[in-house]
Amino acid sequence: MKLLMITRKVDQEDGLAGFTYNWIKKLANHVDKLHVICLEKGNAANLPQNVEVHSLGKEKGKNRLKEFVNFQRLAIKLVPKVDGVLAHQNPEYGILIAPWAKLFRKKLVAWYAHGSVSAKLKVLHSLVDRAITSTAQGFNLKSNKLTILHQGIDTELFAFKEKEEHEELRLLSVSRIGATKHIDLMIDLVKKLKDQRKVVLQIVGEATLEKDQEYLGGLKNQVRGGKLEEYVKFLGSVANYQTPALFQEADVFLNFSGTGSLDKAILEAMSCGALVLTSNDSAKDILPAGLIANQDNALDKLLALVDLTAEKQKVLRQELREEVVNNHSLDKLAKGIIQQF
Prior knowledge:
The protein is α/β, with parallel strands linked by helices. It has helices at residues 18-28, 64-78, 91-103, 119-127, 183-193, 210-225, 243-249, 264-272, 298-306, 310-327, 330-339, and strands at 2-10, 33-41, 51-55, 84-88, 107-111, 130-133, 146-148, 169-174, 199-204, 232-236, 252-255, 275-278. The chain has 11 helices and 12 strands.
């Protein structure tokens, strides 16, 4: 089987898009040839020999007309050569490739996992043969085309590690920096906790949009204003393959996302043996009630979690790891995607 995948960026060093590199490696194990069209290409070294990455050239400077022309050129060249097309996440990729897929009678499958429903998503849904997502909340359209495959976590990369004893409570956030992630609430938690016990919060991620940069500035002001520099650390963007060490060292991974879809970082943390506290609606299907919080009870839930006996924490960490291995592994996802064709 020969497959064409369309995605935003292929770069194993990228903090947000780095996981796509792992997707490509796993998908390549199940096909004879994998072509990848991406808007932007960074470090794509050491991909399997049956993978060929074609960039639209954004890494050389943004030029939408040139990118559109390059896309059309690659589409007419590659679509006739493959058996199916996978459009990854951004609806416009599926919309743009659909005419060529229809013309050459190739099956078009789209992956989309986000709580929002846009006009573009509705158009995409009308054009694709199949739609796939991580949770029911990640594709909020009624559809007889939809298959839920869960997230795909590389459980070998995000390996389980037993916790070493340490004095301070280690909290961690890994996400895009933006208001929907409610990182300000995490900083509030630290402010309330610091007089009760030693605590440090590491915040991993970058702000890409202007409004997100303003939010990040507000977070830093919040830290300075509360004299929390000793307790809150901004690490910036960290490559996806470097985050397992952070998850393995963390006691509790915090996720207060309001996007509605299941953030893969929750599962990455679980896979590495971190406890999780989240307000994510989609996580209610896979996590015990004690790990689901809201703005009003987050502090009480966190304290209850970290005050569990060492043995109970160990059992809980192992259960979280098993949930990922059994239901959310990248191997299972890759097989599921191929079965759509």
